[in-house]
Amino acid sequence: MEGAGQGTGTVVVVGSINVDEVAEVERIPRPGETVLATASRRNVGGKGANQAVAARIVADDVAFIGRVGSDAHGDFLRRGLRDHGVDVEMLGAVDGCESGAAHITVADGDNTIVVVGGANRAWDRLDDSEAARVGAAAVVVCQLEIPPTVVDDAAAHTRGRFVLNAAPAGPVSAPTLRRCDPVIVNQHELAVLTGAEVDDVASVTDAATALRARGALSVVATLGANGAVWVTDDGSGHIPAPTVRVVDSTGAGDLFVGILAARLATGTPMDDAVTDAVAAASMSVGAVGTIDSYPARGDL
């Protein structure tokens, strides 16, 4: 069974928001090595915030629920999401806590990321107004950069469709897994959740099918340049990705999640939603930046 929408197409993202400090280098440094950056930038990031901005490319109504610190970075992050058309009424501030941050190194289309959780880790459940907002949404999106108790709480209050991006890789409680429609993972995350070796489309499909058998209503697995695999009770499929020149892959996975969630919120079938998400992610890797590389509304 696939979760039913609530009619409005509203997407609510419950998740992480960080200040991204990005350094562009000629190559990723080895342990103990110092390299000089060719450029640097600061922008709004975090898997949750990225996914909310991505959903807004398609959906007219996107809200974000999360936590920032009571610092200047919190104001910067709130303003940045608002500028992208995301409702930040329920982006709360935690006194005495710093906003989350991510230190990102980008080289030749690849990246390394170190995340400092900060305020993202400073809550354990939704308040009553947040729970009501989640319950009224057509699609609710979570990731694992926030405490698992918050993820479980969001899943429990969802009355529409619950989408979980199980990233970074980690355990998912059985009740939450049974709400996932879909759970979205990359190959590494799929391997962690299933214990299977996944190195091609066939093995990814088998592992995704096994994860669905454990309770997930549907599963979508991303394969980078090889596109994505989806598994539902109606069957499975593989959507290949177009061949593109990769400049910067940072945030492409979050764009995939946001587009997929927004398409599902409007009742788009899974195969078509995955196709659109693959296309969007393929567009973004050809440009530098995270949300700055995302396509504009109407470009898809």
From TrEMBL:
EC number in record: 2.7.1.15
Binding, substrate: 18-20, 46-50, 145, 254
Name of the encoding gene: rbsK
Cofactor dependency: Mg(2+)
UniProt entry keywords in alphabetical sequence: ATP-binding, Carbohydrate metabolism, Cytoplasm, Kinase, Magnesium, Metal-binding, Nucleotide-binding, Potassium, Transferase
Activity control, per UniProt: Activated by a monovalent cation that binds near, but not in, the active site. The most likely occupant of the site in vivo is potassium. Ion binding induces a conformational change that may alter substrate affinity.
Residues holding K(+): 248, 250, 284, 287, 289, 293
A Pfam family hit: PfkB
Organism: Williamsia herbipolensis
Name of the featured protein: Ribokinase
HAMAP family: Ribokinase
Family to which this protein belongs: Belongs to the carbohydrate kinase PfkB family. Ribokinase subfamily.
